Amino acid sequence: MDGTRLWVDSRARYEIGLREEGATLARLGAHGQRCLDVGTGRRGLGARVAVTALGATEVLALDLHQASVEAARRALADLGDRVVVQRADATALPVGAGTQDLVVSLHTLHHVVDWRAAVVEYARVLRPGGQLAYAELTSRVLDDRWFRLVSRHPADRFTEDELLECLEGAGFDVPARRHRSRVGGRWLLGVATRR
Ligand SMILES: C[S@@+](CC[C@H](N)C(=O)[O-])C[C@H]1O[C@@H](n2cnc3c(N)ncnc32)[C@H](O)[C@@H]1O
């Protein structure tokens, strides 16, 4: 059984992402006009958050899976030409270095096999001062043996400290006032700034 798929595509997940995570990221100061939403999913959640709450005027929404790309295109149609959806891998983003003001990555890194390479790629595409707005689950949830029975994620996921260390190493500053750790380090939200 893959409970991950049921949850990821659910209306409940979408509402939490939009109302709780989007609002938190906005409160933490996430903002930027030219934006990538990496791992947009079937509902195009991060792209909608970026346009409605984070000041984005031009969003390229990306997903590895073609079916998600097509579903997201339909889901985001009301946002018109502010959003373009295309297939791409988080570890090889189809934009130039330093071209983006904002990267939105909602529950994507914990699905990417080489998540550290994706973090380096996020740093590459952001201009100095540009922001990464993230929401993540950590290995404290994902590597739980009961959770693994009903969900599917790559092995070897990150702890809170490992994610923060990787962000710092890739060229991001993550001030404590812009990072939230919830449910005992299981659910992370934050805004990292490209140095
Ligand atoms: C848990 S879903 C999150 C979807 C949405 N961002 C949200 O928060 O509801 C993770 C998404 O990342 C995508 N994904 C996984 N690996 C990826 C990769 N290497 N590059 C781009 N997208 C990827 C999956 O297809 C999926 O749509």
TrEMBL record:
InterPro entries registered for this protein in UniProt: Methyltransf_11, SAM-dependent_MTases_sf, UbiE/COQ5_MeTrFase_CS
Domain Methyltransferase type intervals: 36-133
Domain of life: Bacteria
Database matches in SUPFAM superfamilies: S-adenosyl-L-methionine-dependent methyltransferases (SSF53335)
Coiled-coil regions listed: none
Gene Ontology molecular-function annotations: S-adenosylmethionine-dependent methyltransferase activity
Gene3D superfamilies the record matches: Vaccinia Virus protein VP39
Pfam family for this entry, one: Methyltransf_11
GO biological process: methylation
Keywords: Methyltransferase, S-adenosyl-L-methionine, Transferase
Transmembrane segments: none
UniProt name for this protein: Methyltransferase domain-containing protein
